[in-house]
């Protein structure tokens, strides 16, 4: 059965055209073989031309992060944009709580104001060595609830869902809320199911 070993609200940073967040992903050492997830969230506010920020591949000594999914929105009337990305390391080596993770976000266009970046991390026990069976995503959704789409699983499956939006998110049916952003100009959110039964899973917040 899948279980969350630890989760942590990681580093954050604010800049003008670029920002780099650097700090430990976890407060305790991880266990050999577990699944590590890094959820990176970024926002930009503009004087002109709202365009989604670009998130770089995170770096952590001893780990290789793999991009699972990234999504974004751009509000051209509100001059606000956001991006988020889910990275994972399956069957991970032991990661010391003293080891820093670093990720950079860059404003891709427009002028003025600031860009911000923040990450959260999860250590999960139980998922397979190759855990990314399927994924779904949606960019620029303008309706609520936030709905990345449905997934079909063979169960029991660990489901991790994330979002970046102007609206705050609440947990969808059967989901537990993860760690939300605390710094951004918009709302970064996550939710998860530890052991979803086989079938189609609606991932809406």
Describe the structure in your own words.
With 205 residues, this protein is mostly beta strands. It is 0% helix and 50% strand. It contains no helices and 14 strands. The strands form four sheets. It has a five-stranded antiparallel β-sheet, with no helix packed on it. It is globular, with a radius of gyration of 16 Å.
Write the topology of this structure.
Elements: E1 3-15, E2 18-24, E3 35-45, E4 54-55, E5 59-60, E6 66-75, E7 80-89, E8 100-106, E9 115-125, E10 150-153, E11 157-165, E12 176-177, E13 187-196, E14 199-202
Antiparallel strand pairs: 1-9, 2-8, 3-7, 3-9, 4-8, 5-8, 6-7, 10-14, 11-13, 12-13
What's the tally of helices?
A: 0
Low-confidence stretches: none
| Main sheet makeup | 5 strands, antiparallel
Order of helices and strands: EEEEEEEEEEEEEE
Q: How much is the average pLDDT?
A: 86
Rg over alpha carbons: 16 Å
3D shape:
globular
| Separation of the first and last Cα atoms | 24 Å
- What is the percent of helical residues? under 10%
Number of strands: 14
Structural class: mainly beta
How much of the polypeptide forms β-strand, as a percent range? over 45%
- Order of strands across the widest beta sheet? 1-9-3-7-6
């Amino acid at each position: 059965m899948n279980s969350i070993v630890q989760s942590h609200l990681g580093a954050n940073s604010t800049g003008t055209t670029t920002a780099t967040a650097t700090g430990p992903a976890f407060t305790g050492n991880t266990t050999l073989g577990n699944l590590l997830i890094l959820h990176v969230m970024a926002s930009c506010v503009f004087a002109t031309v709202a365009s989604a920020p670009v998130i770089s591949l995170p770096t952590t000594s001893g780990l290789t992060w793999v991009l699972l999914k990234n999504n974004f929105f751009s509000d051209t009337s509100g001059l606000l944009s956001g991006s988020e990305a889910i990275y994972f390391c399956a069957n991970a080596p032991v990661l010391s709580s003293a080891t820093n993770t670093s990720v950079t976000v860059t404003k891709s266009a427009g002028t003025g104001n600031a860009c911000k970046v923040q990450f959260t991390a999860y250590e999960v026990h139980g998922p397979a060595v190759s855990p990314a069976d399927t994924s779904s995503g949606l960019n620029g959704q303008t309706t609520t609830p936030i709905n990345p789409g449905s997934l079909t699983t063979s169960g029991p499956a660990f489901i991790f869902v994330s979002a970046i939006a102007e609206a705050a998110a609440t947990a969808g049916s059967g989901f537990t809320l993860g760690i939300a952003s605390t710094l951004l100009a918009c709302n970064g959110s996550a939710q998860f199911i530890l052991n979803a039964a086989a079938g189609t899973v609606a991932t809406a917040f």
